[in-house]
Amino acid sequence: MSFISAAPEHLSYYDLQLDHPHWEQATVLDFGGNRGNALMAGRIKESNYWCVDVSWDAIEHGRRDYPEAHWIFYDRYNFEFNPTGISDLPIPDLGRKFDYILAFSVFTHTHEAEMIELVKELRQLLAENGRLAFTFLDPHYVLPGDYNPLLRHHHPQTNLSWRLERARGVNPDLPVQQLLSKAAGADWCALIDNRELYLGQDDPGIRKTGIASSYRTFCTARYISRIFPEATILACPEGFDTQGMDRHHCCVLKARKENAVGMQESKEMVTP
After folding, report:
1. Do residues 119 and 196 both lie within one domain?
2. Which of 48, 51, 69, 70 lies closest to 10 in space, CA to CA?
3. pLDDT tens figures, 104-145
4. Which is more confidently placed, 23 or 169?
């Protein structure tokens, strides 16, 4: 059976980040939405919701629970969630544009080049005033004090230290402090198999790594701002309950617009 998420709904996260849109009237594409993780909050009209995911079983699960929504299996290769899929398969033509496209913890499992490629495709699916919002994990983001018991010996407590301490639960010999020192100051890092840490251009991507159990990527807010200079970058809302797990940043992008000579219009970067 392919992956079916047990995670709680994530629309409340986006509701805070996007300043409480009128979800009831919006068309929404939940990219990597699994069994309908944005729909479960009950605020999006079922017939206005599209879910695209690489897990066939999750798509079937969502279709049974929400038959009026639109469920699209995306047969793209992903070693964790669809290992028999097709490499580099474009996002399918959905026949419409969307007011909001959401991607929660999707690009935390992809190489930088794949993230850039998919974001470019997703922006083409936005309505004129639409927004694409996707999450990423800043490895150096400092978590609140006493955030999680696993981090009681860490100063500061960060997203990466939480992830490494969690990995040490199944691999007691993991050199957590050594890996944290290695990652200090890095803008991009990838944790493979919960034991090997690659920085920046040394990240091989999962295709070159061979058999592995997991591939988790981290990038700083300033690095995402360099990749997408027209984006709004938002830290995890203080009022959002992460249940003691890592805290996601959000990158918000408008539809890609072209001027008369086919060049992208310049836009101001806003990074609260």
Report:
1. no
2. 51
3. 999 999 999 999 999 999 999 999 999 999 999 999 999 876
4. 23
The parent domain of residue 209 ranges over 149-218
Please indicate, yes or no, whether residues 125 and 62 belong to a single structural domain of this protein: yes
Structure pTM?
0.89
Distance CA 106, CA 34 (A): 10
